[in-house]
Amino acid sequence: MDNQESETNFETTDNPHLAEIYKNLYEQSPGLYRTVDEDGIIIACNNAYAKNLGYSKKEIIGSTVFAHTAEKSLSTMNECFETWKNKGTVSDVELFLQRKDGSIFPVLLNAMNMYDKNGKLIGSNTVLRDMTKFYEAIQLKDNIITKQLETLQEIDLQKDEFFSMISHELKTPLVPINGYLDLIVAEKYGAINENIKSKLEIVRSNSSILLNMISDLLDAQKMELGKLKFDKEIHNLHEIVNETISNLHPALERKGISIIPDLQVNVSCYCDKMRISQVLTNTITNAMKYSENGDKIHITLSKNGSYAKIVIKDHGIGIDSKKLDKIFVKFYQVDNTFTREIGGTGLGLAICRGIVENHNGKIWAESDGRGKGAEIHVLLPLE
Q1: 44 phi, psi to nearest 5 deg
Q2: Which residue, 19, 150, 181, 301, is most buried by CB atoms nearer than 10 A?
Q3: Which of these, 96, 127, 123, 132, lies nearest to 110 by C-alpha position?
Q4: pLDDT category, 53, cuts 50, 70, 90?
Q5: How many CB atoms lie within 10 A of CB 278?
Q6: Same domain as 146, residue 191
Q7: pTM metric for this prediction
Q8: Does 373 lie in the same domain as 234?
């Protein structure tokens, strides 16, 4: 309020012609103008203000600025009034006014001090810009964006469901194919010569790879849709780890890789046995992929506070420290060139993370860098 030179003086001029111009500007302006005294009492308003609020000027004059403020903006109006009294100006404050019929509408408020000829503060001139059309435009845009987002989400859901259905349909015929191949190779239907057996072994191996890839795709989609089922009971993790190692023995033997277990007994947790075995299978298989013939994979199981801790450690190509968190992201490959040589979808560890997190556990990777091997750590709450 002290900087009077920067304020507009609306006191009537000695020039009648100029005074008439000021009056017409005030009265005929499409903006909503009101003049208030130091106590917040409206002492004048223009036609647009009265018309927009649905009152006559007679009803408006003498009322307070709060009388025409919507309830949800009363605190904002109070802040504006205090700001004006302290600083002499208010700029670009959004609030809502309330009409005589009870409807409300948004405005942008600007106010500045008004002085008489002698420089005495006599009140404030307030300009309120009706923001209804602006708000309607924003709402329309928001509605369009919301509708587009809903459409995209629906398309995305349809895509996920279609992908899940296709994966399931692809998996269905592969299961009996693999089963019969196992029986034929095991000579359950009669003896076969070694040449045919070796060819069938290749077919069975590739069929198993394809089945595992489709299973990973199917599980990843189910997890994305929140449809991956879990059947949790109290299980002994020592037994689950041993069973998983036993199931992987043929594959380990073929690659010449041995597992060195260090498993604490009587470590139990409330879990889905099949899914935890899937986590172990994926992590051990992943370690096998990046290990050389003759390498060893160390697996430890121990109690760690209120958690069971499983660590799978290999001596393979290792992982750059900057990529440790990324290996659990769907479709991420540590080394695309190397991965193309050994195969894989980049889904195994992402599925592991989803399963472990569903059990309120944690999973992470550690490595000292390229060429120094890697460790996968899994924490599962004890029973």
Answers
A1: -165, 155
A2: 301
A3: 127
A4: very high
A5: 19
A6: yes
A7: 0.54
A8: yes
Tokens standing for residue 191: 């003896």
Among the listed ranges 262-266, 276-280, 290-294, which one has the minimum average pLDDT value?
Answer: 290-294
64 DSSP 8-state letter: B
Over residues 193-199, the mean pLDDT reads 87
Domain edge (last residue) among 189, 208, 227? 227
pLDDT at 277 over 80: yes
DSSP characters over 145-188: HHHHHHHHHHHHHHHHHHHHHHHHHHHHHHHHHHHHHHHHHTTT
d(CA 334, CA 370): 11
Domain that holds residue 219: 132-227
What pLDDT is recorded for position 89?
A: 87
- 190 and 57 housed in the same domain: no
CB 357 within 8 A of CB 225: no
Examine the domain organization and report whether 122 and 258 are in the same domain.
no
Q: Which amino acid is at 339?
A: T
Q: How many CB atoms lie within 10 A of CB 353?
A: 21
Residues pairing with 90 in the sheet: 111
How many domains in the chain? 3
d(CA 200, CA 198): 5
Whether the predicted pLDDT of 90 surpasses 70: yes
Find out whether 337 and 321 touch, Cβ atoms under 8 Å: no
- Do 237 and 201 touch, CB atoms closer than 8 A? no
Order of strands, sheet of 374-381, starting from the edge strand that comes earlier in the sequence: 258-263, 296-304, 307-314, 374-381, 362-366
Tokens of 51: 């018309």
Phi-psi group of 307: left, alpha or beta (phi > 0 → left; psi -120 to 50 → alpha; rest → beta): beta
**How far is 247 from 70, CA to CA, in rounded Å?**
71
